[in-house]
Amino acid sequence: MLVKILGVIDLISGILLFFGAGMKISNFILIIFGIILIIKSSLGMWQDFASWIDLLGGVIFLVMVVISLPWIIILIIGILLLQKGVFSFL
């Protein structure tokens, strides 16, 4: 059950990055998802690749508050988070 809830968080954040790369997303949403992903990555104790993806995604969300990142970086991290979220349901 917990894996599915954490997978939903990955799916939502991946969709936000993947489809919202060109749009301006609210800073509040970016900060909330950045903090959630960083906390989620610390649950894995940064021992596996999936935890590092969460950490990188959280940092990307927080950096997007301050500066505008290239769309290709946002797109790649969005795809990785989407893929991670889909595999948590299998």
How would you describe the overall organization of this protein?
There is one protein chain. The protein is mainly α and 90 residues long. The chain contains four helices and no strands. Helix 1 packs antiparallel against helix 4, helix 2 (27-43) packs antiparallel against helix 3 (49-66) and helix 3 packs antiparallel against helix 4. The longest helix has 18 residues, at 2-19.
Main sheet overview: none
Number-wise, the strands total 0
Order of helices and strands: HHHH
Structural class: mainly alpha
Calculate Rg over CA atoms: 12 Å
Distance between the termini: 12 Å
Beta-strand content estimate: under 5%
Low-confidence stretches: none
Q: Helix coverage percent of residues?
A: over 70%
Shape: globular
Query: DSSP helix count?
Result: 4
Mean pLDDT: 90
List keywords for this structure.
mainly alpha; 90 residues; globular
Task: Summarize the SSE layout with pairings.
Layout: H1 2-19, H2 27-43, H3 49-66, H4 71-87
What is this entry, summarized?
The protein is an all-alpha fold and 90 residues long. The protein is 78% helix and 0% strand. It has four helices and no strands.
